[in-house]
Structures are given as C-alpha cells and as structure tokens.
Design brief:
The chain is α+β, with helices and mostly antiparallel strands. It is built from 5 helices and 6 strands.
Amino acid sequence: MREQVAERARYRCEYCRVPDEIWFRHHLDHILPLKHGGQTTLENLAYACMTCNLNKGADYFVPGPAGEPVRLFNPRVQVWEDHFRVEGALIMPLTGEGGATVRVLRINDALRIVQREGLRRLGLY
C-alpha cells in the first residue's frame, strides 16, 4: 500500500511537494485521521513529508478567520494547483483551505523556505 501511495504522489509530499528521501522518508498521512473515523485505505492516505505530517497531526478542520471550521486541503478530492501556487520557494495559498493548510502545516516557516530554495537550486523542486 505504501508503494501505491508513493507512486500516485510521484514520490513527493502531497502538501508541500518536497521530494521523498531528501531528509527523511515520507510518511503515510491519514487525510481523515483515524481518531475522527478515518480508515487505512488508498482513498484516505496521502504521501506526506515528515514535517507536514507531524504538523498536521490529527487535524482535519481548523478554525478559520471568523472562527468557522475550515477543512484542510485533501489531495484525494482536490487539485493542488486550485489551492496553491509556487512563487520561488514560497507556497502561496489561493483558497481558504489552502491558507489553513499552509498555516497549520507551517509550510512557509523560514527553515522550510530555505530547504525548498536549496532544492530549487539543485533542480529538485
């Protein structure tokens, strides 16, 4: 199952798009976490770098700007390019779900930007 998820994701994190095995092997993320009733099925698994997966934890919905629940990006039913765009080493959100995902997964933390810039210079990002 791990290989199927990795291959489907083209061996890149489905949230921040960092390639696998640059720093640590990627994880299988339960999009709908087990604690919220998610299952270990291909339809509920995303390929996630360690940092995105650990930051996401058991989150699925998070409070939005007005306190309303905002769902995090779901790579099984949503298209990455509809929710994010890359500007250099920054990942810019295009939607509320994209913004919540960038914030919760800390996708644009300073160290992560430096890492992506290094990968970009090497032609790996």
